Amino acid sequence: MPSGKSFQCDLVTPQRILFSGEVVSVTAPGTVGSFQVLYNHAPLLSSLAVGKVILRFSDEKESLYATSGGFAEVRENKVVILAETAEREDEIDVARAREARDRALKRLKDHAAEIDAARARGALVRAINRLKVAGAG
Ligand code: ATP
Fold first, then answer.
1. Does the predicted TM-score (pTM) go above 0.90?
2. pLDDT at position 4, please?
3. Which residue puts its alpha carbon closest to atom 7 of ligand 1?
4. In whole angstroms, how far apart are CA 108 and each of 30, 39, 84, 123?
């Protein structure tokens, strides 16, 4: 568990600010793999996959978010995560995510046109990620 110096982190979507404050660690789902940022991290710009963002605080507490897409920028002890969508684990609507998952699975089984299949796969990955972050099956 990291307990180093703290630095500023903003987690935002085009719609809202989910978090703005001091953290000791940020873990984010980079498109080439998940990465962790600690105090004095080198400058970094990464695109983000569907996955989870973990913020850790100096009191050893942490917050978990389901995110999809976007970018992360690390510069001079400031991290900005601009995600296409983000929900904190306790605000995920599990029933909605299950419905989205089942709808996407049905579309894929029905052999929808290729463009719809790509959309359905994206929806499926987002729904499964939300269920995982919410700790639901
Ligand atoms: P759905 O088909 O249920 O809308 P989706 O994956 O197509 O799912 P997105 O386009 O990723 O939805 O998100 C649209 C908006 O709805 C975003 O603001 C996102 O945070 C929110 N959202 C989507 N699913 C959930 C959920 N299960 N719980 C809470 N918020 C959600």
1. yes
2. 82
3. 123
4. 26, 44, 24, 11
